[in-house]
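User: I'm new to structure prediction. If I give you an amino acid sequence, what do you actually give back? Let's try with this one:
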Amino acid sequence: MPASLQSRFPHPNVRFSRHDQLVMIDIVNDFGSARLTPYGGTLLSYVPRGGVDTLWLSDTAVYDGSKPVRGGVPVCWPWFGAYDATAMGAHPSDKDKKGHGFARYEQWEIESVSDQPGGATQVVLCLSPNEAIARVWPYNFKLQLAVTLGEALHVELIGENLSDRDWNVSEALHTYFRVAEAEGLRLRGLEGIRYLDKLRDGAATQNSTLTITPPLDCVFLDHSGSVVIEDPGHGREIEMHKHNSHSTIVWNPGEQGAKAFADMPNDQYHAMLCVEAGNAFDNAYTLSAGASHRMAMTITTRAV
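Assistant: Good question. You get back a string of structure tokens that encode the predicted 3D arrangement of the chain. For your 304 residues, that looks like this:
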């Protein structure tokens, strides 16, 4: 399959390979490198030129297609978290709806590989209905993920409602950032923002710069600004800009939470922090019949 894909999508900056059972797409240009897989439409790596990987991948991640790859940027769509039946009305399929939607469990198609302005390289993946999806989401749609490697990494999620009824959508680009040490790490940009604490079932306002103390699972609402991860152990800051994202999710499972994941070593919660661009809970939106919605994030790094 990699050879046939290379023939269908010839490009000097893009190479196809296989890792275990999954196809890998590698982008390498003057700005660095990125890797993604059509399984789940998942971005797995982003290395800026001269830097270290910005994304975290579990050492025990599974690449056989039986479950989403632990790490990178899984796509949560068309619902975030547990499915809420009030979003579309109760349906017999509700009992089969997995957490964070179906997109991260499906095999996406490669739609295009192209040059972009300024020397950037773009790969677009596409997900359309299939028999398995129809069992839990019996509505026509098109979902695209556009990954553009340039001076920064730009990731855009485009959902289109091709059915004859409106939907309520919640979503996230569930980004696992690689950090030298999560405990005590500082995250700027959330000051003054109201959040829901999912571990403590409460709401509060972030009064100062957020200092990470795992475990942590918070959804910051009505937040469309940028966030900056201070990663002193790697001598850098990672900045995430957002577009059409009104929620920012911050998650780290902590020691006990990591033990619950067979595909995550117990101690690796120290090396990762999820900071996600999304539209969740109060920030879910109506996607009208025939309409589309674009949500994007741009990741940049700088030495400090």
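You can read the tokens as a compact description of the fold. Here is one thing that stands out. The two ends are 42 Å apart (CA to CA).
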